[in-house]
Amino acid sequence: MTEQAKVPAIRFAGFTDPWEQRKLSEVATFGGGHTPPMADPDNYEDGYVLWVTSQDVKSNYLDRTTTQITEKGAKELTLYPAGSLVMVTRSGILRHTLPVAELRKPSTVNQDIRVILPQGECCGEWLLQFFISHNKELLLEFGKTGTTVESVDFGKIKDMLLYMPSTVEQQQIGDFFAKLDSLITLHQRKYDKLVILKKSMLEKMFPKDGESVPEIRFAGFTDPWEQRKLGDVASSFDYGLNAAATEYDGQNKYLRITDIDDETHEFSKSDLTTPLADLAMSADYLLKEGDLLFARTGASVGKTYLYRQFDGMVYFAGFLIRARIGEGADPEFAYQATLTDAYKKYVAITSQRSGQPGVNAQEYADYQLMLPSKTEQQQIGMTLRSLDDLITLHQRKLELLQNIKKSLLDKMFV
């Protein structure tokens, strides 16, 4: 029985030849580096030669480094050309991924990095995407375990077998993924900028410690803000339902600490469940518009979530505390106040326990926050919510593009 020809599930039009098996050492040469003596400042001060370490390889394209060395420091190192691939082979981050990147500028490297220089018929951009597509299986096959610092056997990687198409097909695949990566990077940068903007707005739209007005205000508002306890603006504080989670029944959702997204603070619906309880007797635990939830114990203590009607019928679990914000305050404003540094500082101090960290209902009620008029609260809350929605939109676009790339990598490589 003859072996079936190796071809990917998806190919560009016009390519029909089977991919050929080659050793990596047949289509690339290799290099490495080391660390110039740290005790000699002449190796580092005012340096401008790019010097790659394991902490620099966080994305798949590398055009800058955290440390640059001088010509003296680089004297005994090889300056590798742009287009070379760098692979981290010794680092504490290798447990989860095999970091690999393409140099966009000539660079030197340290001893934790190995350099792969594609030769002749091997397209560097294609080879980069090959390593990305096979990342987990390569780490599993070549990773060394049982050592203090994780590492990979680069000697074996050099001789690994891979299936390659013609150079022309490699170039088309490489160019395609390079454009897709550029689009992903564009959305990542937009998302990062919006996150930074939101952080800045929180700092400027809430008063700093000891002050009664914020740095930025909407026109027409001049009155000083008043200090109030959270308990003064909430009609009640209640602990959640002590019930196990069971299979989702299609209507009644169960919100636990782990269901609140750490970044967006939204209800993550990827793993919906229903409380295993008599729901007819559990109406007190059903969330209403304006309910603000707080995580009360563990590593997530202080994490908050604001219920909205589009989340449907939601019951909250026992490790959460519900503050039902009263008519005198805007729930969105109260929620945004829990994202400020002042709130985080309060939680960090208050949650200290002899065992695991925790904040109880009374301690949340005692949290003091600065409040303007309700009209000003509503404007602030609405503005910050619009920014949150924009951040979430870009996050979802980014996740969609990343998932598309993952799927295409699976289908366009052998």
Read across the widest sheet, the strand sequence of neighbours is 2-9-6-7-4
How many domain units? Answer: 2
The CATH class of the largest domain turns out to be Alpha Beta
Secondary structure tally: strands: 22
- The CATH superfamily title of the largest domain: DNA methylase specificity domains
Overall morphology? elongated
Strand content: 15-25%
Radius of gyration: 27 Å
Compute the separation of the termini in Å.
Answer: 21 Å
- Output the number of helix runs: 11
Low-confidence stretches: none
Mean pLDDT across every amino acid position: 94
The fold-level CATH name of the largest domain is Adenine-n6-DNA-methyltransferase TaqI, Chain A, domain 2
What's the helical proportion of residues?
25-40%
Helix-and-strand structural type: alpha+beta
The main β sheet shows up as: 5 strands, mixed
> So, CATH architecture of the largest domain?
Alpha-Beta Complex
Question: How would you portray this structure in words?
Answer:
With 414 residues, the protein is α+β, with helices and mostly antiparallel strands. It folds into two domains: 20-164, Alpha-Beta Complex (Adenine-n6-DNA-methyltransferase TaqI, Chain A, domain 2); 226-371, Alpha-Beta Complex (Adenine-n6-DNA-methyltransferase TaqI, Chain A, domain 2). It is 33% helix and 20% strand. It contains eleven helices and 22 strands. It has a five-stranded mixed β-sheet. It has a four-stranded antiparallel β-sheet with strand order 14-21-18-19. Strand 18 (291-295) and strand 19 form a beta hairpin. Helix 3 (124-133) packs across helix 6, helix 6 (167-205) runs antiparallel to helix 11 and helix 8 (331-337) packs across helix 11. The chain is elongated, with a radius of gyration of 27 Å. The mean pLDDT is 94.
